[in-house]
Structures are given as structure tokens and as C-alpha cells.
Amino acid sequence: MNWKIIVLTAVIAGLVFLNSCQPVTTKQKVSSDFQDLIAADLSNCDYKPGTWKMIDGVLTRTGSGNNENIWTKDSYEDFILDLEFKVAKNTNSGVIYHATTTKGWDWVQQAIEVQIEDSYGEKVNNHICGAIFDALEPTENMVKPVGQWNHMNITVKGSLTKVVLNGKEVIYMDADLWDTANKNPDGTKNKFNKPIKDFARSGVIGLQDHGYPVWFRNIKIKKL
């Protein structure tokens, strides 16, 4: 066999091998970059005692109230948040980020919420699971039926938010386009008394209690 062919064959084989190894290396690196958002004993969170509990790695609400959210003590600016969640019948919850206050319902007017809800099979709107609540509907309703685990990945960088739900990118939002109070870029009304573009770009992260069961696990975050 011609020596040039031998060398070329060896080079190609080497490249194929390196390429096959790359996903493993990348996955290991990404995994090591992520940290637990919530400690197993909830010590890095603010919440009302008796309202949330981590059981065998699964975080769930144990209270009977409403708006008894659990909040991180640390603030986050740009990040990737990766988690799994499960809903029950009528579950209404959410992932709240860039909150600068956790008092009462004050966070509603100055933080963004990615909706988590029992909305399997419902028509797409800005209140179903995966939506930026009251601001932007997902491209598709991707939530699974009650009792099944869902995977959500939220990337926030500057004015941009991307949400991937069960493998599908359902939200790509530029908050700078929300430049008018009580109004979305498409002309529909929202509940926000100031433009979303003026919301803080750093704050704590919360998981919402809205009076219904919800479960979270594998809650990981990476600061960007």
C-alpha cells in the first residue's frame, strides 16, 4: 500500500477517534461547571419554615399557603439554570429570576417568571407552562402530562432569555423590546406597571408556591 494512503488513513482514523471522544469530554466539563442551586438542607435559601423540604433529592412544598416561595440567598445576573420538575393536577408554579424583593407579591412587578403549570394539551398562550408569564407565549406547548418529569433549561444573558423545555426551544426573548408599561411588543396588554426592559438584570432566583403541589430535582446553575 502506498505510504501516503497509509498516513492519510491514520490521520482520518485519529480525527474520527478524537471527534467520538469530544462529547464525553465536553459533557464532563459542563457538568463540573454547574453547581447545586439549592442545598440539600436548604441552608442557602430564604423561605418560611415548614413550607419546603428536600426529600431524597426532590424539593417539594410542604405548606398549605399561597405565595410561600423559596428564594436563593445569592443573587444571579447571567446564568444557565437546568432543572427537572413534575406537576400534579392544577399545579401552578414557576421559576422567578432577577427578583430584587421577596416581600409579599411585590416581586410580581419587578421580576420575570417562567411559568410552570399543568397545561398539557392546552392552546398556546402566555400563561401555559414554558411561557414568560403574561409577556411571551412559548412557540409550542411542550409540558408532559401530570406525574411525568419534565426537563427545563433557562439561559439568561443581558436582555436575552432562552427557555428549552423537554428538548424544544420554546422561548427566545429580548427584554429590551418590552419598552412600554402594560404592553407587550405585539400590542397585547400585560400586568406590568413598568416596562420589562427596565426590570433589574440581577437578583435572586425563586421557585413559586401558588397553593398547588409541585416537585423539583437536579436543580443546577452555572454563572456566565
Helical content (DSSP H or I, runs of 4+):
10-25%
Look up the CATH topology of the largest domain. Jelly Rolls
The parts where pLDDT drops under 50 for at least 5 residues are 1-30
Shape: globular
Structure write-up:
- The chain is mainly β.
- It is built from 1 helix and 13 strands, in the order H-E-E-E-E-E-E-E-E-E-E-E-E-E.
- A hairpin with a 2-residue loop joins strand 3 and strand 4.
- The protein is globular.
Topology of this structure?
Blueprint: H1 3-33, E1 35-36, E2 45-46, E3 52-55, E4 58-61, E5 70-76, E6 79-87, E7 92-99, E8 112-117, E9 150-157, E10 160-165, E11 168-174, E12 203-207, E13 214-223
Antiparallel strand pairs: 1-13, 2-5, 3-4, 4-13, 5-12, 6-9, 6-13, 7-8, 7-12, 9-10, 10-11
Give a brief description.
The protein has 224 residues and is mostly beta strands. The protein has one helix at 3-33; strands at residues 35-36, 45-46, 52-55, 58-61, 70-76, 79-87, 92-99, 112-117, 150-157, 160-165, 168-174, 203-207, 214-223. The chain is 14% helix and 35% strand.
Summary tags:
224 residues, mainly beta, Jelly Rolls, 2 domains, eight-stranded antiparallel beta sheet, five-stranded antiparallel beta sheet, globular, disordered N terminus
